[in-house]
Amino acid sequence: MSTGPIKMDYLVSIFGEDREFFGELFQTYCDDNTLRMNELRDKMGEKDASSIEHLAHSIKGASGNIGADAMKDFAAELETMGRESELSGASSVIESMASEFEEIKTYIDSYINS
Q1: Inter-residue contact 44 to 25 (CB < 8 Å)
Q2: Which residues, 6+ apart, have CB-to-CB distance to 86 below 8 Å?
Q3: How many Å apart are CA 61 and CA 66, to the nearest integer?
Q4: What CATH number does the domain containing 38 carry?
Q5: pLDDT tens digits, 7-22
């Protein structure tokens, strides 16, 4: 069942097959992370390592909660960069996150509309 960017088998094992719940969960995830991704880009422009660390931490937790492991791993990498105030390479990680987020949103849209 987990062929996409979200481990649905993990979620189903915890919550059962409640499509309405998943729709709400995924909508919240997308709404929140759209804001966080935009803010990440803004903070990267400001070279605000502390804010980048905190935003990445939030994305990491939210992504882990829905079984989006690749996104969680990118966010963990960015969180470490922010914590260490070492932002060289952070723009590349943010772009990888943005690409993964697009895949997640496409997967979610497909799931909700199937």
Answers
A1: no
A2: 49
A3: 9
A4: 1.20.120.160
A5: 999 899 998 988 889 9
